[in-house]
Fold each of these.
Amino acid sequence: MKAASEFKDKTTAPNQLWQTDFTYLKINGWGWYYLPTVLDDFSRYIISWKLCTTMRGEDVADRISLAIGFGIDGRIIDKGIM
């Protein structure tokens, strides 16, 4: 199966689809750091992020909880949509 060049069902407004990512950063002399982020698919804004020294599931869960509380452009999001 080939990957598509674009999504079949594109988002048409903010807060319809969020993506999460964990980026690994190695800083010489300091060690590994991890950057969990939550990205809004439509606007491509990073809604929530935190630089961490560990790669725990709780770090991502905290970022998602914060994003749900604020959403993009400061609007409160209905938690029922998640």
Note: Confidence is low (pLDDT under 50) at residues 78-82.
Amino acid sequence: MPSQTPFLKNTGFAHTHASANAYAKYVEQQGLFSVNECRAFGSRDLFFVRHAALRLDGVALIALESASLLLDFDGRKLPALILSHEGECHLRQGEGLWSLRVGDCLYTRLDQPRLEIKKRSAGILIAMVPDRLQQMAELMCRNVIDPEALRRRLTGQLAAGDQISDGRLAAPLAQAIDQVVTLIDQTTSADEALSTSLRFDDLLLRLVVHHLVPELRGHAPGQHLEPGITRISQPDLDSLCDWMRAHCHQPLAMDDLEQRLHYSRRSLQLAFQRRFGCGPMQWLRQQRLAAAHERLQNPLPTDSVSIIAQAFGYTSLASFSRDFNRYYGSKPSDLLRQRSK
């Protein structure tokens, strides 16, 4: 039965491979990935892959069909979508394992992934140019989310309170991406140059940004807020943030923020979530850690980790060390020791 997956029906794009070694070389010749291992999944299975690829300005689309495949490759940590079109496939990456069935769409960064197909399956991998994704995200998310929080979501270097960007897309976004891919296939079949001039790559990147920044999908202009919630103006929120930075050495609580700005707790939480992607106290913790990191890099002669922790609002040295290690990937004592030499 002919595959109904986009691009695989197009004889101008699809190539059939019956040799694992030849297919591995073909993949590497495309210039995106280097192959670590390529073979049929079962030891007695015949190797057969049908592969089609199309490059636009900001994305590369790869359609793949096989009945038995194990493909381990270096994905160069490229941001990518994996859209399952027929059957079921499995993706292993680090300690993660995703089983993708028809209609599933996964966003991830390709860090030494291992694709496993045990029965006839077909799907599409959409690899994105990181700089193009970042440019689109910055354009769309201006005044919506803190630039540093956005950078962490794009790179996967998440901090406490950040939303996890890896994972399955919500059904409406997955369906929209599937429709765009189908449209690219239809347009390319008629006129390959038309797909480039219509900038379908921009549309795919925009849909990915909507997955990474769910704040874009909430509270559109004219949409009513929940009862008891008042929208906080940008100047008011900027003023509060400046005050919190100036007083981050004090043990601030949500009550202090409410009294300072005279907005409800829920209004504050919503404003910070929309702007920075986290709650007020999580944002304050990030500011404290950033200030402590700067102090650790430029310590005073009498500084110790305990003194610096207390100077930036931490009453517990254990909590400070734990948060700092989680955020920066190193112990504050190690950094202080290096700078004190």
Note: The two ends are 70 Å apart (CA to CA).
Amino acid sequence: MANQYQLVVILNAELGEEGINNLSESIKSKIEASATSIDAIDTIGKKTLAYSIANQTEGFYVKYTFTSESDLPKEIERVLKITEGVLRFIVVRVGE
């Protein structure tokens, strides 16, 4: 059974516009490869962090809403943990 999920990613703002676009496209392609559908991609933009993460005080936020089987979020988390330029991320299942 497919569930709807939201993924919020904080990217390193020092990557620049081109680096952020490339990284967000690679995340999108990873989701598209296994997800049933991508419902929405919201680029929230650059925000000041509440505390520094890896000596960064600003991050670029992107939110993905997608529908997939229950094994995809674990795979996305595994990939994002080792992806250079990702400061933080969270994947949550949207309640019914």
Note: The chain has one domain: 10-93.
